[in-house]
Amino acid sequence: MTSKAKLALGVTTALVAFAAATVAPQAAAHASKKAHKHAKKAAVETVETHTSSFSHSNSSNAKVDALESQLQAMQAEIRSLRAASGRATIDPDTAKVQELDQWMNTVKADGHSSSKGAKDNMVFFRGGYGYNVDKRGGTLDPTNAAGVGTLNGAISNNDAWYFGAGFDFSLNDNLFGMMQGTEVLAELMFDYKQLGERKPNGITTAVGNAEQLPVPGVNTQTATVNSLSLAASPKIKFLKGSNFRPWLIPAGFELSIISPPSDAITVLNPGMMFGAGADYKIWKDVYAGADVRWHQAFDNLDGVNTNGVTAGGYLGLGF
User: Fold this and answer.
1) 20 inside domain
2) Contacts of 137 (CB under 8 A, 6+ apart)
3) Phi and psi at residue 97, in whole multiples of 5°?
4) What percentage of residues in the chain have a pLDDT greater than 90?
5) Contacts 24+ apart (CB under 8 A), 247-253
6) Which CB contacts under 8 angstroms, 24+ apart, belong to 290-297?
């Protein structure tokens, strides 16, 4: 090889080496830049992928919650429809009738249960002491035996004893809506009262003998002085449901039948009666009580006065 050729070859080699040295850093930088770009793009894609996945996950959860809420609402509606379908359609009039029947059954049940505890009506048997304010009066001799004979005069006894019986009928449990636990009853009662026994009756023997009256009217018989009273009264009884129950009679009607009759041969004497008392439930429907009553006649009965008081006890049976 000639020297020129060798020289040209050396120059060419040097130029190639210089070019390689110059191009190599740029290629490396380009490759690094390209790799960095690819890495950045991959990171962005990864972030986008994760973001998209997270958004997709949140969206899926929201949809699941919405579906669950809708399912629960549908289940509630189905239960409501089933309950409604299980009930028959009730006409308003039918509903009122059923409500009335239910109320009546309740009232009957309450009345039945209360009747087991206590009976509202009562029959009672009573007796005790009586006192007439005035001497009752009696049959006088119809003869005029001035200074000769003696008249029978008024019957002297004021004290008496009595016995009788009666009924209490319940009318209302709350004083006609004015007071709870206060019962209104109607009382029907009769009493037999005896003031004296074997008092002279009619023309005395002394008068007949003194006047030498040939009359069969001379009467040596004796009479029992008594009376029978019939009464109807309203009775107000307190503390319904309690064993101890006080009561009062504000005013009642009374009719007295006396024997012997008055001097005018009158036997009926109307009047009024007032009373108060109390009874106690001693066992089941058995009651023991006590009362005091005032008897007031409207007027004297042809000289006979029946005003007086009776006081005693009674035994009652509920029914």
Assistant:
1) no
2) 154, 155, 262, 263, 303, 304, 305
3) -65, -45
4) 34
5) 247/185, 247/276, 247/277, 247/278, 247/279, 248/275, 248/276, 248/277, 249/187, 249/273, 249/274, 249/275, 249/276, 249/293, 250/274, 252/187
6) 290/314, 291/126, 293/249, 295/229, 295/254, 295/256, 295/271, 296/271, 296/272, 297/256, 297/269, 297/270, 297/271
Quick: pLDDT tens for 120-163: 899 999 999 999 888 776 555 444 445 544 455 556 678 999 99
Say if residue 145 is in the same domain as residue 112.
Answer: no
Query: Are residues 210 and 286 located together in one domain of the fold?
Result: yes
Amino acid symbol at 17: A
Tokens of 238: 């307190």
Q: Which sign does the torsion angle of CA 90, 96, 102, 108 carry? A: negative
Structural domain that includes position 99: 89-117
Q: Which two tokens stand for residue 4?
A: 């020129």
* Structural domains counted in the chain: 3
Q: For the segment 269-299, what is each residue's pLDDT rounded down to a tens digit?
A: 899 999 999 999 999 899 999 999 999 998 8
Identify whether the C-beta of residue 108 lies closer than 8 Å to the C-beta of residue 301: no
In the beta sheet, which residues pair with residue 84?
A: none
